[in-house]
């Protein structure tokens, strides 16, 4: 079975969303992006998302209503999404926050690059591993 090519993206900053979509457009394989403006919107949509179609969830930490830590916890305690790879994709970069993310069940912690060329490289790396290489539990 081919790996899923849908990515969940929980991000409240419209500029970061726009830049991320641009970086995705530079990939050689089309990706379906399910964007949620905050953690609450993502968690409310979970019952309508078929988990086997999700390659990974990229989650920002600093979002209104429900933050990234709460999203990670909720996904890890949801039986349908407990094996969905979670990549923290954020501007925050402290050891304490990284440790907390991994303790809650995140699979990776990726600081957002500041330059567009670096962002394209990082998004390509995320795609190469989580979509092309990683074999998911279905």
- Tell me the overall shape: globular
Q: What low-confidence regions span 5 or more consecutive residues with pLDDT below 50?
A: none
Largest sheet: 5 strands, parallel
Q: Please give the share of residues in helix.
A: 40-55%
The total count of helices amounts to 5
H/E series, N to C?
EHEHEHEHEH
Rounded to the nearest angstrom, the distance between the terminal CA atoms is 10 Å
Radius of gyration: 14 Å
| Strand element count | 5
Structure class: alpha/beta
Spatial order of the strands forming the largest sheet: 2-1-3-4-5
Mean pLDDT: 88
Name a few traits of the molecule.
138 residues; alpha/beta; 5-stranded parallel β-sheet; 5 strands; 18% strand
Structure description:
With 138 residues, the protein is of the alpha/beta class. The protein is built from 5 helices and 5 strands. The protein has a 5-stranded parallel β-sheet with strand order 2-1-3-4-5, sandwiched between helices. It is globular. The model has no long low-confidence stretch (mean pLDDT 88).
List the helices and strands and how they pair.
Layout lengths: L5 E5 L3 H12 L6 E5 L2 H7 L8 E6 L8 H10 L8 E5 L4 H10 L3 E4 L4 H18 L5
Parallel strand pairs: 1-2, 1-3, 3-4, 4-5
Summarize the structure.
The protein is an alpha/beta fold and 138 residues long.
